[in-house]
Specification:
about 400 residues; alpha/beta; Aminopeptidase; Alpha-Beta Plaits; 2 domains; 8-stranded mixed beta sheet; 16 strands; about 25% strand; elongated
Length: about 400
C-alpha cells in the first residue's frame, strides 16, 4: 500500500506518526469493542471505552443524554465533523476468533467496531496536530448510537447540536468486497433511502368453493405483492431506482378456507430524495386502490427510515485528496450505488459531506458480506480509517 511522504512538521506527517505509534493500541481497542458488542441505544460500555481512550487529550468530550458522544477540538471559524457509529447487530458471531463476541446473539457484523476505532485513532492524531499548532480550525467528533435501526441515531445527535456551525461532515463504512488499502468513492447518490412497509388486510372469509360470497383477501394480497411494485415503477421517476421487495406474507391456515385477515411487510427503497419525499403518500393511495375491487380493508403502516446518502462533489474531492495523501493516487476507486440504508444520509440532508467505502478484505482472501456472522476484516483497515479521517478533517478546514 503506497504512502505519500510527508515531514514531521506537517499535519500529514504528524497524523502518520501518531497512527503508527498507536497502531497496536487501535487494534486492541477494536478487538475489545468487537468482543463486547452492544445493540442500538444500549451502547453504554462502548461509549465509556471511547471516553476513556480520549480522556488524556485536549478534546472537549460531551456524553449526550440518551446515547453517543460529541467532542470538540481547536479554534477558529471553520468547523468540520467526523462520524462513527457505535452499535452492533442482533446476529450470532461465527468467527471464533480470540476476540469473538462474548454476548450471545449480538455481533459487530457491519464493521462499526472498525469505524469507532478508526475515529478514536483520528482523534488521537488530531490532538497531536492541535498540540503542535497545526490544526487550522475546529473539528467535531460524532460517536453516534443506533445506526442499525430506523430512522437512526443520527437524528438524535443532530437534535443535540451535532451539526451546528459545521460546514462539512465525513464518514467511512466498511466494504468487505474491497481490498484493504483501497477506498470506494462516488459523487452523488451512494446509498438509498430505506423505508419499512407493513399492510394488514381484513375481510369476510369463507369456503374456497364460494369465493363470490367472500372478500377474497388472499387474492387481494397477491395483487398487492405484484401490482404495488409495478405501479410505483410507473408513477415515480425511473431514475430514482425505486425498489419494493416483500420479506413476509402471512394469510390463512388451510387450503380450503379463505381467511378473514392477512398481512405482508417489506421495504421501499430508492436513490432519489425527491421521489422519497413523495413515496409514502403514493404507497398509501395505491394500496387502497389495488385492494378496493375485492372489498377488503387495508391498514397501512409506513415507517420512513433514512434518506439516501448523497455525496457532495466538493466534499468528495476533499476526501479523495485525503485518501491520496495516505495511500497514493491508486488508493481510491469508483464504487457503485447501493440500495442499502445508512443514516449518514440525515447529516447530508442538512450539510455537504461525503462517505467513502473502506476496504477491509485481505488481498487474495475470501469476500465476506455485511450483516453476516462470519464477517472478518483485515485489521490494517483500522489505521487507514484513522489516517484518512484525520487527513480529511485538516483538508476540509483549509479548503
Amino acid at each position: 500500500m503506497p504512502d505519500t511522504p510527508s515531514t514531521a512538521d506537517e499535519p500529514s506527517g504528524v497524523i502518520a506518526g501518531v497512527v503508527e505509534k498507536y497502531a497496536d493500541h487501535l487494534i486492541d481497542f477494536r478487538r475489545d469493542i468487537h468482543a463486547h458488542p452492544e445493540l442500538a441505544w444500549g451502547e453504554s460500555r462502548t461509549t465509556q471505552k471511547v471516553l476513556e481512550a480520549l480522556a488524556d487529550t485536549d478534546w472537549h468530550l460531551k456524553a449526550v443524554v440518551g446515547g453517543g458522544i460529541i467532542a470538540e477540538l481547536g479554534t477558529g471559524e471553520r468547523r468540520v465533523a467526523l462520524r462513527a457509529d457505535l452499535d452492533a447487530l442482533p446476529v450470532e458471531d461465527l468467527t471464533k476468533d480470540p476476540w469473538t463476541s462474548t454476548v450471545p446473539g449480538v455481533a459487530h457484523a457491519c464493521g462499526h467496531d472498525v469505524h469507532t476505532a478508526g475515529l478514536v485513532g483520528a482523534a488521537l492524531a488530531l490532538d497531536e496536530v492541535n498540540a503542535r499548532g497545526l490544526l487550522p480550525g475546529r473539528v467535531r467528533l460524532l460517536f453516534q448510537p443506533a445506526e442499525e435501526i430506523m430512522p437512526g441515531g443520527a437524528l438524535h445527535l443532530i437534535q443535540a447540536g451535532a451539526l451546528d456551525d459545521v460546514h462539512h461532515v465525513f464518514g467511512l463504512h466498511c466494504d468487505p468486497s474491497l481490498d484493504v488499502g483501497r477506498l470506494g468513492l462516488r459523487e452523488g447518490p451512494l446509498t438509498g433511502a430505506a423505508d419499512s412497509l407493513f399492510v394488514r388486510v381484513g375481510g369476510k372469509g369463507g369456503h374456497t368453493s364460494r369465493p363470490h360470497l367472500t372478500e377474497d383477501l388472499t387474492f387481494a394480497l397477491g395483487k398487492l405483492i405484484t401490482e404495488l411494485p409495478a405501479i410505483l415503477s410507473r408513477r415515480l421517476d425511473p431514475r430514482a431506482g425505486v425498489s419494493v421487495v416483500w420479506g413476509m406474507v402471512q394469510a390463512g391456515s388451510a387450503p380450503n378456507v379463505i381467511p378473514g385477515r392477512g398481512q405482508l411487510s417489506g421495504t421501499v427503497r430508492m436513490l432519489d430524495a425527491v421521489a422519497w419525499a413523495d413515496a409514502e403518500h403514493l404507497v398509501r393511495t395505491l394500496v387502497g386502490q389495488i385492494v378496493a375491487p375485492y372489498g377488503v380493508s387495508a391498514e397501512v403502516t409506513y415507517q420512513r427510515g433514512v434518506p439516501p446518502v448523497v455525496n457532495d462533489v466538493d466534499a468528495t474531492a476533499i476526501l479523495a485528496g485525503a485518501i491520496e495523501r495516505v495511500l497514493g493516487v491508486h488508493g481510491h476507486v469508483s464504487t457503485s450505488q447501493s440500495l442499502g440504508g445508512e443514516d449518514f444520509g440525515w447529516y447530508l440532508d442538512r450539510i455537504p459531506g461525503s462517505m467513502a467505502r473502506l476496504g477491509t478484505r485481505t488481498p487474495g482472501g475470501p469476500t465476506f458480506d455485511l450483516h453476516q456472522g462470519n464477517l472478518r476484516i483485515d485489521e490494517r483497515s483500522t489505521g487507514i480509517a484513522a489516517r484518512v479521517l484525520a487527513e480529511a478533517a485538516v483538508a476540509s478546514l483549509t479548503a
